[in-house]
Design brief:
By secondary structure, this protein is mainly beta. It has six helices and 31 strands.
Length: 482
Amino acid sequence: MARRWWTFPLLLVSALAPSFSLADLAFENTAVVRTIELGGSLVHVSTTYAVKALQPGQTTYQIAISKDERAKTSWLEVKVKGRTTPLELSEDESSAEHLLSVSLPKALGVNGTLNLVLETVQTHATHPFPEQATQKEPQLLKYTTDLFTSSPYTTLVQRTKIKSLAPNVISYTTPHDVDSFARDGTVTRSGGTITYGPYHDIQTDADFMAKYQQPISVHYSFDHPVLEIETLRRTAEISHWGSNLNIEDKIHLHNAGPTLKGHFSRLEYQSQNYHRKQSPHILSDFALHLPPGVTNAYFYDQNGNVSTSHLRTAPSVAKGSKAIQYSVLELRPRYPVLGGWNYSYTIGFDTPLQDSVGYDAKNGVYVVGVPVMTNIAGTVVNDAEVKIILPEGATNVEFVSPFPALSSGMSTHISYLDTTGRPAVTFTYKDLTYKHTGIIYVSYQVPLSAHLKKAMSVGAAFFSLFAFAFMARRVDLNLHKK
């Protein structure tokens, strides 16, 4: 009977409180500080968790992200504060919230502490408000997020800072029904920084979040165009005969700022340029950082060549050198791109093959590195396709993407003077940011017969042509001999 007496209360507690789990008892957040840096197409969020273990031998910490926030997040990374190496993590989408399981660098004992930093980049998280503006009016954006940072563990102190690049903050939300958690005020403002909290004793149960969790918004001024690349089609073609790597980008650019109210005035636009007070939602020019040693750069749109560009080249950097330098391509579209307007264009350039390709003489393997994209500052790439065309006859092709691609595959590309076609590797991506400017590495082998195939095919073609001409000169097509 004694055993049944103490077993029954445990069963009762388990039935009445199913929300409790071992995760709730494993850690405690002594402090959570979230910093949101507002932008246009991109919003950078950094959240620091001051973690304390409540049980011995803890090796995995869980971070909760709402489904809506995860849908807007295109890049995330977890590190120990002060270190540069990212920690391994896995994602679980089966629960009510998106959970990230982070592998700690070492097991934590009871009362062991660690500071973890979650960095994310959100895309399409802001929207123009109002949605229309004249050429003279400022560009105003609105950003919305949750008041509390979700966590599977109890949080003793929590604070959220929202920072705007410009101090001109139009308005922000004042939370309600949270006075019992705030000891120094629910929200404060200093210049362009809005601080929510600190809030104390934030619980993890669903009833607490359902009662006190609420959206907060910041309405602010943004002084740069809100740019999106709707589609990017990058083609990188490797030529061993020409010792050249050609990269070509076909880009469909969209200005996602407030649409133009009324008609466009060229006089007003020129007047703003003269007084250097151009409206922030108008894109007139931008610059690209290209690899050093570029040659034969070109820039054209649907109407033809665009001559309003300037290239400042930098010499090639020796392999193994730590020097950082790049060429700068300054582009000016054919017309100013206002909010809601589009601009489609193509840029391309050549680089020396030895700057991008390495050769393993022992195994006869070539390794080429191709950048995923050329970043435009503050821009998100909604849909990207990268196609790397290898030399004809390349075999044993292997490739590594710097981050997971939506899809990847092999195909055959037919070009001039080809016989069987060239193998090509194609990658597709979505929502690329400045954090995704990595290198795709492709390894392959080219046998000697493949190197000679083009020369032999060209030689055979010329020989056939001359043979045909030789035979044609000896054919008499006259009906009657003279």
